[in-house]
Amino acid sequence: MSRFNIFTERMVLTPLGTDFLHSVNEYALDYENTKYMCHLPKRDSEETLDFLKNVEAEWNKKRPNFYEFAMLYQDRHVGAVSVYYENGIGELGWIVNKQYWGKGFAYEAAKAVIQYFATNMGTTHFIAHCDTANIASYKTMEKLGMMRIGEYKGRKNRAADQESFEYQYEMVL
Asked: Where are the domains of the chain?
């Protein structure tokens, strides 16, 4: 499969890659923006660049194992949304630059990704995880129609000194 865009009411979801290094760094290097993330914050711009090169390499595969999209609103990169596959299940993830919090971008992007992957890839089972303290994230999951199926200890957010708890949500279409 080649690269593709997904269009929402307000945004274009386009393949994430090295062209977005500067705008990814705006949120990926910011602790406040990433405090509930397992793979963020990045240590430096070089680590972000390595991540984006890996994303581009995945997009170039005939059948990627994951898809990372930049969320573009009025030609501004406001965040990212992703689908990672394991055993036919799509794991959703998202991050929004804190300058754009509270505007519904995560919900709009995730909803569009779910619809696109269900229609075009036959994906009917989605999961998502978040730190139990990340209220905005689990409220987004619930708004998407996902059901909380568990709470687990042992989550290690990258910037945290100690483990926390996480929720797991699920949706079967």
From this structure: 6-172
The topology under which CATH files domain 6-172 is Aminopeptidase (3.40.630)
Distances (CA, A) of 31 to 21, 28, 73, 143, 155: 17, 8, 23, 26, 17
Q: What is residue 55's three-state secondary structure?
A: helix
Nearest-Å Rg of the Cα atoms of the chain is: 15
Tell me the per-residue pLDDT of 34-78, one tens digit each, with 9 for 90 and over.
999 998 878 899 999 999 999 999 999 999 999 999 999 999 999
Phi-psi category of 67—alpha, beta or left, where left has phi over 0 and alpha has psi -120 to 50? beta
Q: What angle do CA 133, 126, 142 make, to 5 degrees?
A: 45
